[in-house]
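task queued by scheduler; priority normal; single chain, no ligands, no partner chains; default sampling; output format set to structure tokens
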Amino acid sequence: MRLLEAAGIAGLLLCTPHLFFPAVGPEGVFAFVLCVATLTIACHLWFEGYRWQMAPAYGLAIGLVLYECMHWLWGLHAPHLAGVAALVFVLAAIVLCILLPVFRLPAPTGPYRVGTQSRHIIDGSRRDSFSDDPNSGRELMIQIWYPADPTARKPALAPYRDRRITALKDAHFALVKSNRIVVFPDGRIARRKFQGNEDYSSDAAVEEFVRTADQEVELRAQDARFVLDTLEHLDENDPDGLLTGRLDLARVGIFGFSLGGGTAAQACWLDRRFRAGLDMGGMIAGESAKQGTFAPFFFMFEGMYESFPYILGSDVFNVAPPPANGARLNSRIDNSSR
């Protein structure tokens, strides 16, 4: 638990003995402890941010204040009922906060901070089939991570996960501070979903899935090439002055998981500026499944990913042909765990 969370819950827990035994100890002490606990929870909400796991503590603080007011104004007296309710609410808050904690990530081991920046780029030479506007260019949101100046003043840190893309179970991840520095945040979020149906109930369904996979990896490989083009322009002249002359574009690799792994293989077929690739449990599709790649390629496969339709009948040992100098790297790890 975070500091103010723990302090607020501890204060509420100290209030429960007086509810069971109101004759023991002065009434003023209970009122004082309750005020301190309520103020601590208010500070927690202001400085640390609310989370639903603390809802029992929020409700208990409000309930105890109302109970105390009614006790003084109208003589309401239900010690055992109030004590049991308070104990249940406190224990519920403790259990929820322990089971779903706001954890602390380990600090980077290197000498630099980690900066991150999102950018919106548009490829005007291609039309975006997913856009409502048939004349719009292909739009992408990319995120860049880079070593930041460790001597700069302490900046705001990016959340471990944006609250807007969390569900009830993982909403507390938005309160976890990452080690990434927020630079020029624009607040936009890009969401994508694979357009295929993954229905293998018939030969026609499998063929449709394969066609969709081919289209997806070809589209995304073109996206990867455009991103690399953009990085070259930014290395020459970044309007923000962040990346100019700082990128080593002679040693560019690409990796991905699932469909992103197939995209990595396709990108290594499409553009020889990608010098190496890694596929982590992703299907092979597009031209790379038939013709291989032009760069050393590494596969991590597990179980079904070694069978049709994921590799489309390809021999993964021959996807990456040896380059002109005779060197070759085309390895595979079986039964890898992720």
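post-processing summary
- The first helix runs from residue 3 to 20.
- Helices lie at 3-20, 27-48, 55-74, 79-99, 203-236, 259-270, 287-291.
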